[in-house]
Design brief:
Its cofactor is FAD. The chain has about 450 residues and is of the alpha/beta class. The protein is built from twelve helices and 25 strands. Strand 1, helix 1 and strand 2 form a beta-alpha-beta unit. Helix 1 packs parallel to helix 4, helix 1 runs parallel beside helix 8 and helix 3 crosses helix 6.
């Protein structure tokens, strides 16, 4: 059978591309090797954010209840793991149903590329006009003696019990999120990083997150080298740490489909090289974590799928320019959201949530909004640390990608009271119009 488009991979990138192209009348087949939904649904965003929400409630409920004049307790139950699994299964099935609802076909099985116009799946040959590779990524196993006794970051967010102790190797996104989650669930957690934690984030973000981890009982050990794993212990140059469970969260690597060498593509250790339309050859595209790019997130994968699909459909007028910025979010408490490059900014303004009426009402007042502008007064950077950062950073994503001028944002009427007011007040700070916070007589906040 022949299809207009075959998509290999039913994760975030694959289901979006398959659904768009099928809705537009293309004959589409999406092939998935294991579970629809990919890393995000099965091993990443969904299970980790579910556990983040659980631990946020467990740790903040009493504090917030007291602040609001209530008397309440909340207790941990083992049922939470089955609830997590229910949500994962629902969203995995939803991804497959969305493709089929759009008019596309789906198939479970491992695809093998056998030529530039054919793949094999479940012992049958499928022809295509165009191919989209969306096979995602998998955990990078570090070259450490004894690492076979550890589990990956994917396994860690899918544990069905709380270990008494845990050692996490890796101070990136996954490492810090997992460390805080399990520490808050009751594990004795040590986080080991070969550099400072979160090396790609601004210094103030690293400082806030490190303080929060240590407040929650995580033993953070930075700038250390792992020598080996032995008998349930991680041996480092700074000593030995024992853990009932040892986790490696040392990055991810692209997961390439079988037979990809038959396409003659340019591939490096970070993934497949693509152009701005996610195209490699006339009839081959690659999207999501399998490609070589800076931001490997679920929303970045969706963006790739949109760009590639529009190019296939010859609707390129919708496609944004090459320098489109992708936000990143860290699911710690406090949450962190960042958009743009802080090095592009020449001046910054910060507004704290503690001076925001809505935060004063709900009692979650830690954190701030930071805005950076260039020499032309264009907003090129945004940073949110605090409650609802995952949503607030989306506002700043619109602002940064449209190079909005700071005076336009400063005069924008946002709802009062709302957390998003902190964004406007940060903009007003450039003009000394941020009157919702106190200043001393010398003009300092």
């Amino acid at each position: 059978m022949k299809y207009d488009i075959v998509v290999i991979g039913g994760g975030t990138a694959g289901y979006v591309a398959g659904s768009i192209l099928a809705r537009k009348g293309k004959k589409v087949l999406v092939i998935e090797k294991e579970k629809f939904g990919g890393v995000c649904v099965n091993f990443g965003c969904v299970p980790s954010i579910f556990l983040f929400d659980v631990t946020f409630l467990l740790n903040r409920f009493k504090e917030i209840a007291y602040y609001l004049g209530l008397d309440g307790e909340i207790e941990y139950k083992d049922l939470l793991f089955s609830k997590r699994n229910e949500i994962i299964n629902y969203l995995s099935n939803a991804g497959r149903r969305l493709i089929e609802d759009s008019g596309g076909e789906t198939e479970l099985g491992e695809a093998e590329i056998i030529s530039r116009s054919e793949v094999k799946v479940n012992k049958r040959i499928v022809e295509f006009d165009k191919l989209i590779i969306a096979t995602g990524s998998k955990p990078l196993i570090p070259n450490i003696d004894g690492i076979e006794d550890a589990i990956s970051e994917d396994d860690a967010v899918n544990l069905n019990s709380i270990p008494s102790s845990m050692v996490i190797i890796g101070g990136g996104y996954a490492g810090v999120e997992i460390a805080q989650i399990y520490s808050r669930l009751g594990s004795q957690v040590t986080l080991l990083s070969r550099s400072e934690i979160l090396p790609t984030f601004p210094e103030d973000v690293r400082s806030v997150v490190k303080d929060s981890l240590e407040f929650d009982g995580v033993n953070v050990v930075e700038n250390t080298r792992i020598v080996k794993l032995r008998d349930g212990k991680v041996i480092t140059e700074k000593g030995e740490i024992e853990g009932n469970v040892i986790v490696y969260a040392t990055g991810r690597r692209p997961q390439l489909p079988k037979g990809i060498e038959k396409l003659g593509l340019e591939i490096n250790e970070c993934g497949i090289i693509v152009d701005k339309y996610k195209q490699i050859r006339d009839n081959v595209y690659a999207i999501g974590d399998v490609i070589d790019k800076e931001r490997k997130t679920a929303h970045s994968a969706m963006f790739d799928a949109l760009v590639a699909s529009l190019h296939i459909l010859k609707e390129t007028t919708f496609i944004p320019p090459d320098n489109f910025k992708i936000p990143v979010v860290l699911y710690t408490d406090p949450q962190v959201g960042v958009i743009g490059d802080h090095k592009e900014a020449k001046k910054f303004s910060v507004f704290p949530f503690a001076a925001t009426t809505r935060a004063i009402i709900n009692g979650i007042k830690d954190g701030y909004v930071k805005i950076g502008i260039n020499e032309r007064n264009e907003i090129v950077f945004g940073e949110v640390i605090g409650d609802k950062a995952e949503d607030l950073i989306n506002i700043l994503t619109l602002v940064v990608n449209n190079r909005m001028r700071i005076e336009s944002l400063a005069l924008m009427p946002f709802v009062h009271p709302s957390l998003s007011e902190a964004i406007v007040n940060a903009a007003k700070g450039f003009f000394d119009l941020d009157v919702d916070r106190y200043k001393s007589k010398d003009g300092k906040t």
